[in-house]
């Protein structure tokens, strides 16, 4: 119950003070540039990496990037940059 | 930027083989590893690029796992420098070449002319050379605005000129005037440009004021611009015609009856000089030219057609003593006559047009020379048109 209550308070705070919810709520952000590049910010770890599918954990669930010739161009504790041909991005 | 920074720091391409590679990547990321260009080869093999200092921290992470690591390649500045440390002369050569190229880029190597149709390249080339623009000169010495102004002044056919310095290339863009003839001159008369005796009068327009055999002085009116047209009306226009006359020119030349001739003492000296741009560095001492004859041989470095501003010169000095030698009077007279002719040619006398010549030979009062006064008679068009 407590995390859910925390989330509600943070949401209210974000709305009241006009703060970016992604930062306050520790949410993951996904940027997609055409079908060639994707960036997952604030991930919580790499789950699976193949040439056709990259899965990363986040507070909202598993982020799944599906495509072909996928490659991780840079990887850090907060950010994953993916290049290749992206077909789908899903949150499961 | 990240790639450049990684290159500067040095990085390695490593192959990781084993199960649970995602877990290992997460662990590396948590520890602040900079992981770049991760490629999945097979289910249990990935290739990653890591900074050298991160690679050193990788080994402890692999303890107790079944993941093996191997270096495939090394990249970046530290490896370059290491390679060059082993080949110091190559590194030095590269560094020197870099500075040499940097130095050479301060000079103009190519001159491009555009838009010149009637003006020949040779004429333009010699004109711009006079103005200090040629292959091999320092870029800082070029004054485009002055060259443009001077080109327009020297070549009236040019309507526009632009000089642009683009790196080691100078572009001269020209636009020539359309074939517009200068306007016909206004009314005026033809006057005598010099003294003479008229031998031929040919009037194309106007009224003649002299006739054959008449002696005229400089400034006398030869052809007046006034004439009567077919209807008998008096007109006033530009006088035109040819007035040939016998005119005289005088040229004076002097020849010496003594000559100082150098006699070699047998002592020779050699000096070298290296010229870089406008700076000449002599190697060895110079000798007075009053007591030495100087001969010079020069080598200019060139890269294909481009001239590099680097010249080497070998200068030979031969020590001499001057002795007084008497010159035969006939030889001195010939020398004086040659000089007199040179003098006449400078006044515009064509030797082939001379009808009559008179020579007067005088010995100079100090008895060390002879003077020839040469007077020649030629047929010349003495008419000179002047407007009012």
Layout: helices, strands, pairs:
The complex is a heterodimer of chains A (about 90) and B (about 400).
Chain A: H1 2-17, H2 21-24, E1 29-33, E2 37-41, E3 46-49, E4 53-58, E5 61-75, E6 79-91
Antiparallel strand pairs in A: 1-2, 2-6, 3-4, 4-5, 5-6
Chain B: H1 2-9, E1 11-17, H2 21-30, E2 35-42, E3 45-51, H3 52-62, E4 68-75, H4 77-86, H5 88-104, E5 110-114, H6 121-130, H7 144-154, E6 158-166, E7 169-176, E8 188-192, E9 196-205, E10 207-208, E11 215-216, E12 221-224, E13 226-228, E14 234-236, E15 240-256, E16 258-276, E17 279-283, E18 292-303, E19 306-326, H8 329-346, E20 354-363, E21 369-381, E22 383-387
Parallel strand pairs in B: 5-7
Antiparallel strand pairs in B: 1-3, 1-4, 2-3, 6-7, 8-12, 8-22, 9-11, 9-15, 10-12, 13-14, 15-21, 16-17, 16-19, 18-19, 20-21
What's this, in brief?
The complex is a heterodimer of chains A (92) and B (388). Chain A is an alpha+beta fold and 92 residues long.
């Amino acid at each position: 119950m407590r995390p859910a209550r925390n989330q509600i308070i943070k949401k209210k705070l974000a709305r009241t003070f006009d703060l970016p919810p992604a930062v306050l709520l520790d949410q993951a952000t996904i940027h997609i540039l055409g079908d060639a590049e994707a960036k997952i910010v604030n991930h919580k770890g790499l789950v699976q990496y193949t040439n056709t599918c990259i899965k990363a954990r986040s507070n909202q669930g598993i982020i799944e990037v599906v495509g072909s010739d996928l490659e991780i161009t840079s990887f850090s504790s907060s950010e994953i940059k993916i290049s290749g041909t992206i077909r789908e991005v899903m949150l499961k | 930027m990240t790639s450049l920074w990684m290159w500067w720091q040095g990085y390695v391409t490593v192959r990781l083989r084993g199960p649970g590679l995602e877990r290992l990547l997460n662990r590396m990321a948590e520890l602040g590893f900079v992981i770049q260009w991760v490629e999945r080869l097979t289910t249990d093999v990935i290739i990653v690029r890591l900074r050298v200092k991160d690679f050193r921290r990788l080994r402890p992470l692999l303890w107790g796992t079944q993941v093996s690591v191997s270096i495939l390649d090394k990249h970046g500045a530290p490896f370059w420098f290491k390679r060059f440390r082993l080949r110091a002369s190559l590194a030095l050569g590269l560094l020197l070449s870099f500075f040499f190229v940097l130095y050479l880029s301060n000079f103009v190597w190519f001159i491009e002319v555009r838009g010149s149709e009637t003006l020949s390249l040779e004429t333009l080339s010699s004109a711009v050379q006079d103005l200090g623009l040629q292959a091999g000169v320092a870029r800082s010495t070029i004054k485009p605005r002055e060259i443009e102004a001077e080109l327009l002044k020297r070549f009236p056919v040019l309507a526009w000129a632009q000089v642009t310095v683009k790196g080691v290339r100078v572009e001269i863009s020209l636009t020539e005037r359309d074939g517009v003839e200068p306007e016909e001159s206004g009314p005026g008369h033809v006057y005598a440009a010099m003294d003479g005796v008229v031998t031929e009068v040919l009037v194309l327009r106007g009224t003649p004021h002299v006739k054959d055999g008449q002696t005229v002085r400089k400034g006398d009116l030869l052809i007046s611009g006034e004439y009567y047209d077919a209807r008998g009306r008096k007109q006033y226009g530009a006088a035109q015609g040819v007035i040939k006359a016998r005119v005289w020119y005088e040229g004076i030349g002097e020849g010496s009856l003594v000559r100082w001739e150098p006699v070699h003492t047998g002592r020779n000296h050699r000096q070298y000089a290296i010229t870089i741009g406008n700076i000449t560095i002599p190697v060895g001492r110079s000798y007075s030219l009053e007591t030495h004859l100087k001969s010079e041989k020069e080598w200019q470095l060139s890269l294909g057609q481009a001239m590099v501003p680097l010249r080497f010169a070998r200068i030979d000095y031969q020590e001499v003593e001057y002795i007084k030698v008497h010159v035969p009077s006939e030889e001195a007279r010939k020398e004086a006559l040659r000089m007199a002719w040179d003098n006449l040619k400078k006044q515009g006398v064509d030797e082939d047009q001379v009808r009559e010549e008179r020579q007067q030979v005088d010995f100079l009062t100090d008895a060390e020379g002879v003077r020839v006064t040469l007077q020649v008679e030629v047929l010349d068009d003495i008419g000179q048109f002047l407007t009012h």
